[in-house]
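User: Please fill in residues for this 489-position structure.
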């Protein structure tokens, strides 16, 4: 405590007496810190209390210092009473505690931490105190350049709602309209790759930032978990973690995308945990996205998992055919390109993995049509997307053919093997036999067996009959062709 001016005993006059007082105050302060450490636990202590120093005692008031206003306010609110009680218990006549901001050490010249450098935990060695790029990082954080830019395309308007995402969408809307609603903090969105988590996160951020009825919009910090880690480590390197925390504290909403990235990054997890607690305690909204629910994020500290799961957890399920069609229609509409319904249906049947791939396929189709000034057709689709479609190919089974054909002609699946001979049933059955012959390696007798134990000659007849009808009826041929493309291996 070099700059301490102890004055606990008013009678102290001599230098000797001052030294005795200093020693007593040092000892008292060490005990108080020890007690706090025991009470709050090591992690909390390291984050919030370690930087507290004793400046001195003036009359009945102990003066303790912290490096930033943020920390001062935080400690006053969280630990002010406790600090006072601990000082009083020391019996040195201290009745009040004043927490102040220490004047910052003058920044010295130093090489900046390499921006964008690969940063892996464990944390790299920090610079000696005072050699930090504090001024630089303060500037950077004041500019807010640790927060990622938002994609202007990812808004609520462009997000198509369907069964698989309606709950997540409703939660996102709620948080956007009323951050920190009871039960919605944090909002934890999760789902598989390319299903719209980032889109929803950006949509929330856009909505919160937008001014409403003349009132300025709220501030949002949106970043990937990776970026969070990078900024945190950079702050550690430049001895500016307090500025980092302070800059986060100034936002109304903190959004962290792809949280699963923090698995195994223990130090960053801990920092996130404390930031998270501090913000939620101050009534700030947190929104997090991940590929798994909190309970499945093995490798994330238990206490963090617990806190993440204690608000609203909403999942985005895999898309349905209907949702894929709606998304495709909307995207084609936005691009102002006429894409026939058959092509959209074909794509929605074929590319079921995720929305990103579906969108990519449509974009390629549209770009191709624009480039060559040709309309989009089923044929051009097959040609332009052959590589994508091949990647999505799979072995088709007779059961799938029967199911798809029955659906297409709106008949019961059981009619594929029933004895009914009515045209509206017999024709689809023949189409299914034809496609089974075309798309599988099953023999005629085997196909016959799967269609209600029919003879192989019945299958033979069906195959030639369908081929014949396709020759003479373009509409019918197109129908069968569409079914074939949808099922194709
Ligand atoms: N319901 C939807 N309506 C409109 N577009 C959507 C929808 N769902 C996803 N998309 C689009 O799909 C693409 C991928 O979505 P996004 O990037 O949000 O996925 P993600 O779940 O964050 O994926 P990842 O797990 O890879 O981070 C984006 O272009 C997005 O606009």
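Assistant: Residues filled in for all 489 positions:
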């Amino acid at each position: 405590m070099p700059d301490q001016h102890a004055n606990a005993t008013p009678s102290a006059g001599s230098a000797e007496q001052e030294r005795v007082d200093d020693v007593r105050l040092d000892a008292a302060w060490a005990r108080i810190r020890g007690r706090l450490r025991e009470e709050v636990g090591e992690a909390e202590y390291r984050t919030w209390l370690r930087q507290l120093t004793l400046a001195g005692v003036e009359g009945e008031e102990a003066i303790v210092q912290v490096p930033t206003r943020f920390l001062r306010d935080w400690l006053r609110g969280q630990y002010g009473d406790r600090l006072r009680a601990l000082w009083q218990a020391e019996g040195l006549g201290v009745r009040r505690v004043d927490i102040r901001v220490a004047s910052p050490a003058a920044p010295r010249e130093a090489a900046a931490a390499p921006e964008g450098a690969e940063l892996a935990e464990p944390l790299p060695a920090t610079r000696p105190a005072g050699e930090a790029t504090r001024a630089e990082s303060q500037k950077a954080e004041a500019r807010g350049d640790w927060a990622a830019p938002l994609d202007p395309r990812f808004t609520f308007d462009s997000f198509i709602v369907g069964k698989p995402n309606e709950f997540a969408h409703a939660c996102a809307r709620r948080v956007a309209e009323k951050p920190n609603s009871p039960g919605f903090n944090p909002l934890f969105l999760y789902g598989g790759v390319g299903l719209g988590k980032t889109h929803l996160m950006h949509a929330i951020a856009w909505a919160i930032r937008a001014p409403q009825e003349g009132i300025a919009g709220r501030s949002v910090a949106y970043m990937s978990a990776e970026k969070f880690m990078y900024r945190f480590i950079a702050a550690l390197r430049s001895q500016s973690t307090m500025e980092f925390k302070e800059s986060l504290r100034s936002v109304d909403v903190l959004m962290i995308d792809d949280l699963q990235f923090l698995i195994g990054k223990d130090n960053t997890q801990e920092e996130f945990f404390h930031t998270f607690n501090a913000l939620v305690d101050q009534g700030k909204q947190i929104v997090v996205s991940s590929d798994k629910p909190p309970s499945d994020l093995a490798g994330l500290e238990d206490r963090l998992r617990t806190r993440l799961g204690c608000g609203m957890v909403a999942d985005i399920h895999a898309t349905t055919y209907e949702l894929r069609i709606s998304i495709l229609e909307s995207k084609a509409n936005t691009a102002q390109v006429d894409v026939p319904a058959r092509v959209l249906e074909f794509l929605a049947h074929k590319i079921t993995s995720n929305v990103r791939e579906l969108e990519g396929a449509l974009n390629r189709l549209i770009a191709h049509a624009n480039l060559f000034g040709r309309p989009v057709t089923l044929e051009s689709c097959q040609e332009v997307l052959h590589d994508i479609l091949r990647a999505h190919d799979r072995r088709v089974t007779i059961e799938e053919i029967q199911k798809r054909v029955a659906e297409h002609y709106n008949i019961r699946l059981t009619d594929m093997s029933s004895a009914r001979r009515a045209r509206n049933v017999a024709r689809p059955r023949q189409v299914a036999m034809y496609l089974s012959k075309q798309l599988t390696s099953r023999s005629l007798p085997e196909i016959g067996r799967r269609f209600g134990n029919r003879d192989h000659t019945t299958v033979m007849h069906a195959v030639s009959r369908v081929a014949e009808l396709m020759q003479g009826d373009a509409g019918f041929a197109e129908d069968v062709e569409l079914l074939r493309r949808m099922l194709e291996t």
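For context: Residues 154, 158-160, 165, 191, 193-199, 258, 291, 327, 355-356, 359 surround adenosine-5'-triphosphate (CB under 6 Å).
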